[in-house]
Amino acid sequence: MSSATSWTVEIAMKTWVLPSAAENWRFSLTQTPAIWGLRSSRMTDIYFSQLAPGDILLMYVTNPTQGFIGFASMSEKYIDREKCYWPDEVKAGKVIYPLRFRMNVETVLPPEVWETARIPRKILPYTVRGFSPLDDALATKVSSQIDKQWRTPRVLTRPTVVPFGPRGTELEETPPALQPKHDEIKAQLVEIGNFQNYVTEVEYQIPLQGQTMRLDVVWKREVEGVPTFAFEVEMSGNVERAGVRLRHAFDRWNSRPYLVVKQDDSVRARNMYGSQDAFGRILKMTSPDRIRELHDAKSALRKLEKELGLIA
Question: Where does 169-303 sit in CATH, by number?
């Protein structure tokens, strides 16, 4: 993967287009892990046999709008002709999509901006009609457009949900000298969340009247769900500002608040919030070094699992 929101096209890796209605994408993206299924037909069976772990899967919405809304990588494929999984299968009482595969979601737009932020259909020289491969030239074209159109002010590695919309003044509050370290910790929190099968989002906006307030990183159980974990990375020492954001997340969604601060600021933050109320009692604090340690440990475990063939 590149350091932006798109991917790098490699010779040994195929890129596929997965077209479906918005309601089907909404259902699939709320499942953990995300699973996709295909009807069996002569051409689809051939394509399915060529699908391999690591291949890029472009999520394409066919209605009520048309265009690309995200991408994933294929982790595992299998055939299941017995278990009904999707709502229309359950309703019909029979398997309709036996050709199935699990996806590692890499980047996806929030559903509320699929209409306005999608990569439009016209980027392809033909009408998308079914599951099919994309040649390297077109795959590179789509990748470049995703990188251009969905690039965020603070580029992170492998965000699951791309924040979209106007930038608030809060994005500029971290001093420039501290920004690289701040972004590094945020990127590590994103990847840790991905390792644990959470939907991760950066610069998550808290809906408040008349002001813009964002959380550095959140982990959610579903794309359209509310934050289960809320993280603030505070490198400048302004623990008061970070605490206000985390308290809003706790009061509004009952999110578990985590404050990542330098050791010198942790004592002041603990004295400030104490344990006199529910927020103070549940607030967790840790250091950037501990986040790096956790990230390195999980990355090493992930690498070992891949070497052993336990994951794709």
Answer: 3.40.1350
